[in-house]
Write a structure and sequence with these properties.
single chain, OB fold (Dihydrolipoamide Acetyltransferase, E2P), five-stranded parallel beta sheet, five-stranded mixed beta sheet, 22 helices, 43% helix, globular
């Protein structure tokens, strides 16, 4: 039996005292919306403090999206594509091999095809070509003989590669969302909300989201609109399904424009999915009409990623561009098979990495995990790094050997900016890129020990003891009697959930255990709790190890989110336990 992980509970209502202005906003908004002050206070704490912001949060519309021409270089990008269409130039959409890149590539290719463009797509091979807009990738691109290349979810740091493309007579447009380096590539247009002096107000789009803004910009051009023979809004709604998959899978903040994109996209995906997405949903065994961000992150995205992790990611684009349901089902079944194979490799690698951690590291004292094993498959080390973070709660870097150098993936914990940490060690690194939670890197084999030591030192400096202990952020304490049917209905409208708009977590103190807790499934803890005459079902997924600690207790404190389960054909509220004290 594994030890029960200890968490710190951070109750927002204890750490953040409402200002008089916020308290007034809670009072006014609660009356305007006709909902519980408890839920209104959570809204206000998330910046939803006016009726109009609440309208945008609960009932967003397409017209709420920002003007794409606020992007620096958007006009240049639109003009260059207009020119390519007039001249019948060959266009190549070049996308990264993950969900964000393949979705964006499929979406942009589909749109340009509707415009009658001579357009092809290319996705680099993870092992042969490496990450992003690489030198090897540019070599592969030459066989297509394009005069315009549009990079999706990559390119912002590809300064030399864009110069190489220009010498080959290839203009480049970049649609990226990663952190730029000091030099911006000399491309025709660089669309990235994070680039310096870009006035676009929302900074957290994924790469596919940036490509969607390019489509929005193109649709404002009269020559482009004249090529479209269908309702523009209906077309945008279809493309929102791609953006929804990519935004959820890329774990970007689900606030502001991202939340609008995903909420509208989920509605469309559940109501009338594209044939390719319907095939993906059904092959995964999910129910049409009930797709959520959670099912995308843990179910659909891994299947799209799998073909790029252990094979050719072009097949993901083949699926996502398919207009034939039958053809899409065939590709989706292959993806299902490869996802099964990926999970097998993933598990073997995880067990090996865990053995190395237990053998080589002191997890009580070491602030980070840095491992290298030449035989590991490069397609799964990112997943395994995330699993090690979950297991040991330390910043983790896993590397394997590719073409004589160590290539790897880095994953972080809350409060530790792994991109910044790598930047402090950049003299020991050949190249790196990413953001505060995840990054990729390349290190010379001879410098691995130096790099490991340097990264451990940086982690030692940046990680306080409190950051090494995982935190459960609790929105507020409530009584079980607060959980009325209307409370549950309104709370469901807080979805879609994701980073910075997580499912609210509540705490209830001194609740009474009813009957005997028991283990169900593999290691899930099921029990009932009572407050007064109010009894509720509770389940703690993978919390079976708590059983010995609570079976002789009369009262406990619980941290939980609210879910629904089906009983006698009806949906009833259920507590989804996160922690017990």
């Amino acid at each position: 039996m594994t030890p029960v992980r200890e968490y710190r509970w951070s109750v927002r209502t204890e750490t953040e005292v409402l200002s008089p202005e916020a308290a007034e906003a809670v009072k006014v908004l609660s009356e305007q919306l006709g909902i519980s002050p408890i839920l209104t206070e959570i809204l206000v704490s998330r910046g939803i403090d006016t009726f109009e912001k609440a309208r945008l949060y609960f009932r967003p519309q397409l017209q709420d999206l920002h003007d794409p021409f606020k992007f620096r270089d958007m006009a240049s990008a639109v003009e260059r594509i207009e020119l390519a269409l007039r001249r019948r130039e060959r266009i190549l959409v070049y996308g990264d091999y993950d969900v964000d890149g393949t979705d964006g590539t499929a979406m942009l290719w589909s749109f340009l095809t509707k415009l009658g463009a001579d357009v092809h797509y290319f996705v680099p091979d993870r092992i042969r070509d490496g990450y992003g807009l690489s030198t090897q990738g540019i070599e592969q691109v030459k066989t297509y003989a394009p005069s315009l290349l549009i990079a999706v979810d990559c390119g912002i740091t590809a300064v030399d590669q864009v110069d190489d493309a220009r010498t080959l007579g290839i203009d480049v447009i970049i649609c990226d969302h990663h952190e730029p380096s000091e030099r911006i590539p000399n491309a025709v247009a660089v669309l990235d909300p994070l680039r310096p002096e870009c006035p676009y107000e929302f900074k957290y789009l994924c790469g596919c989201g940036v490509a969607f803004k390019l489509i929005q910009g193109l649709l404002q051009s009269p020559p482009i609109r004249n090529r479209i023979h269908e309702d523009v809004n209906e077309l945008l709604y279809q493309y929102l399904q791609y953006v929804t998959l990519a935004t959820a899978a890329d774990i970007v903040p689900l606030v502001g424009e991202n939340r609008t994109l995903v909420k509208l996209g989920l509605e469309c995906m559940n109501r009338n999915p594209l044939p390719c997405i319907r095939a993906l949903i059904e092959t995964a065994g999910f129910q049409l009409g009930k797709i959520s961000t959670g099912q995308i992150v843990f179910g659909l995205a891994p299947r799209i990623n799998a073909v790029g992790r252990i094979g050719d990611a072009t097949r993901a684009v083949d699926l996502l561009t398919s207009t034939s349901y039958e053809q899409a089902c065939e590709i989706a079944r292959v993806m299902e098979s490869e996802n099964t194979q990926r999970r097998k490799i993933d598990e073997e690698t995880f067990l090996h990495a865990q053995e190395l951690v237990e053998t080589l590291l002191n997890t009580d004292n070491d602030c980070a995990i840095v491992l290298h094993e030449a035989s590991w498959h490069p397609g799964v080390i990112g997943i395994v790094a995330s699993r090690l973070v979950e297991r040991y709660y330390r910043p983790t870097i896993l590397m394997t050997t590719v073409d004589g150098v160590a290539k790897g993936s880095a994953r972080s914990i809350s409060g530790f900016n792994i991109h910044e940490a790598l930047k402090r060690c950049e003299d020991k690194i050949l190249q790196f890129g990413g953001h505060k939670y995840a990054a990729g890197l390349t290190v010379e084999i001879e410098k691995l020990d130096e790099f490991r030591e340097a990264f451990q030192q940086v982690a030692q400096e940046l990680l306080s003891d409190s950051l090494k202990t995982p935190v459960i952020h609790i929105d507020t304490e409530i009584f079980l009697t607060d959980i009325t049917p209307k409370f549950v209905r309104v709370l469901a409208e807080f979805a879609p959930f994701g980073p910075e708009n997580m499912r609210p977590i509540f705490a209830a103190r001194n609740v009474e255990l009813v009957g005997q807790p028991r283990i169900v499934g593999k290691n899930h803890l099921r029990f009932k709790v009572r407050s007064g005459n109010f009894v509720m079902d509770a389940i703690g997924f993978n919390l079976g190890d708590f059983l010995p600690r609570i079976q002789n207790r009369e009262r406990i404190d619980i941290a939980f989110s609210l879910d629904e389960s089906e009983y006698a054909g009806e949906l009833v509220p259920q507590l989804k336990i996160r922690d017990i004290k």
